[in-house]
Amino acid sequence: MSSFARDKRCAYLIVNADDFGYGPGVNRGIIDAATHGAVTATGVFANAGELEKQIEPLLDIEHLDTGVHLNLTHGSPLAEEMCALTRSEGGRFPGKLALLKALISGRITPELVEREWRTQIDQCISSGMEVRFLNSHEHVHMLPGVFTVAERLAAEYGIPHIRVASSEWHCRQTAGSISRNVIIGGMKRFVPSRLRARAPAMLGLTRSGKLNLRYLTKVLSTLRSGEVYELMCHPGYTDEAVESNPRLARYHDWDNERQALCSEEVKRLCDENNIRLIGYRHLAIVDGRIAVRQA
Questions:
Q1: Residues 6+ apart with CB under 8 A from 74
Q2: What is d(CA 30, CA 15) in angstroms, rounded to the nearest whole number?
Q3: For the whole model, what pTM was predicted?
Q4: Number of domains in the chain
């Protein structure tokens, strides 16, 4: 067998925790879910305060892959030009709708986004991270005209993997999940097919922020042998940083996700469904498609 190939006897799954750096409770939950549970990767906010100190525990988890959680909607920017632009908003990034309006109007240009994201990547690298992938907070890198920025930076920095978010219609839907699926489905149309072939199939959008064992039991049973998947998740501990933001508190069930991902049930489900947990380090791009490194 080639050193890079897909074993047709099993499915491959990266369990990727978003939002490291959001706050102490989220950080601790991700570390616990990586140390005692199924998490194999995490995306890091570059604009988290004292980043080098915050990521120190991550670097001690040998099997955990790290990437940059590119950001345009949470906290404060890092690049000087973006800081100047957001001064009227108290020096903080705009919300999603305000960001979209700023991109459409040209107030925030792709060039400005590139300078901000380049600064974020540099910040993570200088803090000691090995950046193996890029994704983004609230999937903003999927916006038309912006995905090409992420692609260009990934090529420049030698970062082989970019998340391609996907709709997820096979699960029970809520009003919120229907909205997310429609929006992400529309955004994905602007991602070139060659890049879709290079990315794991993404899971977790329907229950984003509120993964539970019921969802995992259903979804893990559907994974196809030989295919590569990424499960987006948000484990954590509820703390003051979370409780102080009512919107986040409505959207996330940090504790339940952490408990589910750390449960023996998840390990059993992976065994029963012939699922092998891997990280981005086990992947490569061969002939334009994603492949898996064999031991």
A1: 22, 45, 47, 93, 137, 138
A2: 11
A3: 0.92
A4: 1
